[in-house]
Amino acid sequence: MNYRKKAILMVVALFCLNIAMLAQAVSLKMNNVSVKEAMTQLKNKSGYSFVYKVGDLDTKKIVSVKAKQLNEAIDQILYGQDVVYEVKGKNIVVQKGQRQNTSKDTKKRKITGVVNDANGEPIIGATIKEKGTANGTASDLDAKFSLEVSPGAVLEISYIGYQTQEVKVGDRTSLSVTLAENQQILDEVVVVGYGTTSRKNLTTSIATVKTEKISKAATSNISGMLLGRAAGLQATVSSPQPGGGINISIRGGGTPIYVVDGVVMPSGSFEVGTGSTSLPSSVNRAGLAGLNPNDIESIEILKDASAAIYGIGAADGVILVTTKKGKEGKPTIVYEGSYSIQKHYPYLEVLSGPELMNMVNVFSKENYLYDKGQYPYGNTAYDDKWTPIFTPTQIANAPTTDWLDKVLKTGAVTNHNLTISGGSEKFKYYLGVNYYKEDATVHNSDMERYSLRTNITSQLTNFLKLTTIVNLNQNNYTNSTVGGDVGNLGDQGAGALFGAIFYPSYLPIYDAEGKYNVFSRTPNPVSMHDINDKSEQSGYYMNFSLDVDIIKNMLSAKVLYGLNKENTSRDSYIPSDVYYALQRKSRGNLGYGKRQQSTLEGTLTFQHKFGELLDMNLMAGMGRYLDSGDGSDISYENANDHIQGSSVGMADGPFYPTSYKYKNEKRSQFVRGNFDLLGRYVVSASLRRDGTDKFFPSKKYALFPSVSLAWKMNEESFIKNISWINMLKLRASYGETGSDNLGTTLYGIVTTTREDVQFNNNSVTYIPYILSGANYEDVTWQKTVMKNIGLDFSVLRDRIWGSVDVFRNDVTHLLGTAPTELLGMHGTRPINGGHYKRTGVDVSLNSLNLQTHDFKWTSQITLSHYNAVWIERMPNYDYQKYQKRKNEPMNAFYYYKTTGIINVDKSNMPESQRSLGPAACMPGYPIVEDKNGDGIIDVNDSYMDNTLPKLYFGFGNTFTWKNFDLDIFMYGQLGVKKWNDAYGNSIDVGGLSRGVDAHNVGIYSYNIWNTQTNTNGRFPGIAISKSVALPENLGFDYTRENASYIRVRNITLGYNLGPKELSVFKGYIRGIRVFVDFQNPLTFTKYKGYDPEINTSSSNLTGGQYPQMRVYSIGAKLTF
């Protein structure tokens, strides 16, 4: 009996041991590989070897494997093979023979079917398995499958990145299966610098933006796809004009670098100026203008030490762009087209002709009373001698010209995309063609782009792979006179929109002679339609990479060469009948420029897994990067109006030619190591050495190290058995990056008037600093130190997942300039100094809220907060009395708080107001708060605001019901104040008092204090227009408003037809999607200005910026 018990116990123990071996953890993911390759990978991952007789196993069969346990991996590798196996030690013994069928009825029947995704796209290589058996197969190049199954069988259909689906066969002989995308992203591949990794093994803070669900109907560039989409990334519109720029910032830094398919690309637009024409020189367009958003697969944002591997320029973060590529299968042709209507947001409501005349009369009289010292501005009674500027008859008969209506219009966008992709195991291809045309809401403002992109992957041999990417583009622009930088010209160089709100509404467009009316120094807004300002930008980009498998699955090498070349030209012309910049004469500018960047990199990668102890990946590389460019332009005057544009040869002159040329080189060496210990602890470290010719030889090179750690806490025994925690990972990182932000070179140029170095008839001459004489060897790299602690989590069966990050970035040795003299000449020299820090929090949260057979609801939330504080300012900084030397917000704004308006009898004026002088004590003047109560208004009474928002956020919801899908995405900022630039024009009481020279104003002018119609006005009266210098020239707060906003960016409703609904087309049409999209339909804000988001710093004018737009789109997508 004892022997029997011992024997039973031994059998049970051996059985349990075998089960334990089969159930041991092993992470294996492969797509469309041979059985032989899969067996090799399993051996490398787990140490288990397959033992079998030749002929018993088809090792060339293609399979896909996604397994976390050993038995799962073995079953998937042996799918569809007439074999059984047994694990003996570290050997998996495979023998010919069928597995035992537990079904009472062993009669099998054939099932056929097709597997597609939710968009009707075929899924090639999907695994179809009879549940509970090793019987299975994979979908072929047409996404079709055929399998013999037992009666009552249940099929399990799975594919990487999609939810596994179980289907009861029943009496059916054919199936159409649609796999839903897996919301859980822990196993997804994430692109990092010089490689990829799985999200669950990430040790740094990287945000991913998937582009397939982002509406691109009226989106012309990549920047427009990032608004609110990632935690830690701040994106705000700087100009909504065609191709307009969007300010992109990562954690409050400067402009990040863009890496497209492994190659660093210019982040800014390439534009030619307008010479001496006085037209806006910069149109402030977005970078990467030649890249079609429809060609983008995914975008990764490197926010912390993960950016250090890129060294120079990565101090402000890195945006990695991965473009689409071909997949194995028959050709897939996709056409997507849309048509959009643009409507501008409500602009400033200005006064009609009669209303303006009445308003001018009111404030002309106020000015008369003030200047004469008559009541209430003095003790003298009104003498009744003021004469109205406009008589009642003039007011009654005054016309109204709607200047804004002449400048603004309804816009339209046409967008066509055609892609062809497919391939075999050894050759894959992708071709994308795009035509985009935008005729925007402002006259003389449009964009047209043609682009073509190819991505071809060729498996030349079993160890050599060549990838070729080519992008061609041609962009044509018509430039309006709004949204640009007008320098110091003020209203004389104002754009059409500024003129439209500035020009008196009673003034006709044309005078009695049929010429354009001119008011004050401002150009007639309608006349600007005649200005011809066109730009052309063309470019080509080539990326060649050669991957070499030196030792299969262990040692590989890669050589990458990238070339980006851009050409741009601009032809600007102002006809002689257009009054602009105080001139009425024909003039123009013809310019061109070109720039070229080339990248040559080589990397060597070693990877190996030492059982369950260590999974190691080592990479070393080097690179050489060249950046060069040149350009020239010529301005001319007195040209022939009948030959507008490029009429230099027909001009009488004078002529003003300029030119430039530059060339820079950078060399780098870099290494990185990733170590996964015991499947629980991940360590990553990198070191990059950069050298640039911008610095002197002694400071030419710099080292940028980084290290990051991750602890997969859910793999620990004390958490592993907590069922509601699916993933919990703690991260920490430290990294250093640098900047060589010195323009094109450290060797600056200075102007001189010394006779011994003058040439060319005593003209001003530019000479270079002399290396031996310019002792700037102390100038070195600007340095950024990045620290981050983060937590990644997934709970409740992966229904809620996300991350939280806390960071601090310290920027030291800032690069700036200081005055200097060299060889007796005045100029500036570069210097280092200063220190500031940026601190903040990023939160990303995703959830699967509800899922039934027909309905699904998911949500995404991103939250970001950061602050920037000076630790120490630059050594040559000119401090103001109200500023702190240390620990002051970088975005500080100082002002005096007002508590009301001095009334007619001054009964509400405090004694402290008298310290500002008599002019500040007049009725209608703002009452300044005595903050410290000392009875004197001085700089100690000033307030400070931090102009940064307290919170950036994005919030999206996606609903799917049967064939419908609805996506709603919104973003915004909270806790921020801005100047209301609309007030600046509307409450210009000084302008209103100029009589016939008074410009038009907005309806806010009815809130100006005055003695005749509004003694309870919110805004100051005529007294504010008189010269009163406040202490330290600080301003008031009465035009600052809460600029928090919530903007609904997109509402997209779509209806999808898949292969099942389209079976009548017999596979020729595999998918149809029709959709409508509403962009910027709603904005919730208390801000009364033009727009709470648009960055107005690009213009020195009060108002007149390009209007925000609502866009209504309809489109269709067809898959063949």
Q: What features would you describe in this structure?
A:
This protein is mainly beta. The chain has 3 domains: 22-98, 3-Layer(bab) Sandwich (Phage tail protein beta-alpha-beta fold), CATH 3.55.50; 100-182, Carboxypeptidase-like, regulatory domain (Immunoglobulin-like, Sandwich), CATH 2.60.40.1120; 257-345 and 408-891 and 950-978 and 1043-1119, TonB-dependent receptor, beta-barrel domain (Maltoporin, Chain A).
Summary of the model, kept short:
The protein has 1120 residues and is mainly β.
Describe the SSE topology:
Layout: H1 2-23, E1 25-34, H2 35-46, E2 49-51, E3 62-69, H3 70-77, E4 83-88, E5 91-96, E6 109-117, E7 127-130, E8 136-138, E9 144-149, E10 154-158, E11 165-168, E12 174-179, E13 189-192, E14 195-198, E15 206-210, E16 233-237, E17 246-250, E18 257-260, E19 263-265, E20 296-302, E21 318-323, E22 329-344, H4 353-372, H5 392-396, H6 403-407, E23 411-423, E24 427-439, E25 446-461, E26 464-478, H7 496-502, E27 532-551, E28 555-574, E29 587-610, E30 614-637, E31 655-677, E32 681-692, E33 701-712, H8 717-720, E34 725-739, E35 749-752, E36 765-768, E37 782-795, E38 800-822, E39 825-851, E40 855-872, E41 888-889, E42 892-896, E43 898-901, E44 926-928, E45 943-946, E46 951-961, E47 964-974, E48 977-979, H9 981-986, H10 989-992, E49 1035-1036, E50 1040-1042, E51 1045-1057, E52 1071-1085, E53 1109-1119
Parallel strand pairs: 2-5, 6-12, 18-21, 42-49
Antiparallel strand pairs: 1-3, 4-5, 6-9, 7-8, 7-10, 10-11, 13-14, 15-20, 16-17, 18-19, 20-21, 22-23, 22-53, 23-24, 24-25, 25-26, 26-27, 27-28, 28-29, 29-30, 30-31, 31-32, 32-33, 33-34, 34-37, 35-36, 37-38, 38-39, 39-40, 40-41, 40-46, 42-45, 43-44, 46-47, 47-51, 48-50, 51-52, 52-53
